[in-house]
Here is the input.
Amino acid sequence: MAVSARLPRRRISGVLLLDKPLGLSSNDALQRVKRLFRAEKAGHTGSLDPLATGMLPICLGEATKLSGVLLESDKRYRARVRLGEQTSTGDAEGEVIAVSDPAGLTEAQLREAMRGLRGHLWQIPPMHSALKRDGRPLYELARQGQSVEREPRPITITELELLDFSGAEFEFEVLCSKGTYVRTLAEDIAAAVGQKAHLRALRRTGVAPFWDRPMLTLDALQALAEQPAALDVHLLGLAEALRHWPAVAVDEVRAGALAHGQPQRMAGLVRGQRVAVLDGAGRLLGLACTDEEGWLRPQRWLQTDQGG
Here is the structure.
């Protein structure tokens, strides 16, 4: 029986803004995109639960070196919350563990509660999370009925707005920092008005700095799978991932020196900040920082033969 030849992997780089579908884990979505592009390397920049949908930036090739930067990005979500029932997982997958009666709750009360949850806060991560304790994810311990103490973590809620309230459910939009658990935020909003609640649906609508960029579905990508060039059109260049950073353009001589780890003194640099280093055509060469003496010091360099 003839065996079909396996198509070779491609050394391709860029960022794809995937619209992750409902019911698929972030890692499964990542692997599907990697196969469709036949990419040598791929990584995502912050998991979405299977019950969540929306923007999942997928980094291919050299863009994987930027994954850590994108993990730090602010994110925007829309969440729908069911009032009256708290679950063991904080979402619709868990068992009901506490109840309340939301019959007397008003929209004004919800809005007031949300005003009190904006700004710099401390949040205790849920047991059903991927955070690890002694090398084991907390969700594994939670499934065994265990609960361990979790340290509160600093988060920032920049925007928090009520979009809809029907009595039994409400919907809100939030712009928040990395590490924010929207399930926990939903419970905190409900607790502020004396209620129990759980997350019924969650959609990530944006990740900085890609607020104004469209997403693609897996179905749309699959339809283009036989045409690599058509797929590649939807990849964002590496510089797009750092367009919210200060940037400095360097000539070939300085680029070569920085690539070999040699700091460069340059006029006009703001001291003590991270910088995106570009070539004359605006392509991202690497990440650097400026020190207090005015030196530009390379931190992470990219292979410039892979696009972006």
The domain at 14-73+209-238 is CATH 3.30.2350.10 (Pseudouridine synthase). Helices lie at 26-37, 67-71, 107-115, 138-143, 182-192, 218-223, 228-232, 252-259. Residues 287 and 300 are 5 Å apart (CA to CA). The chain has a mean pLDDT of 91.
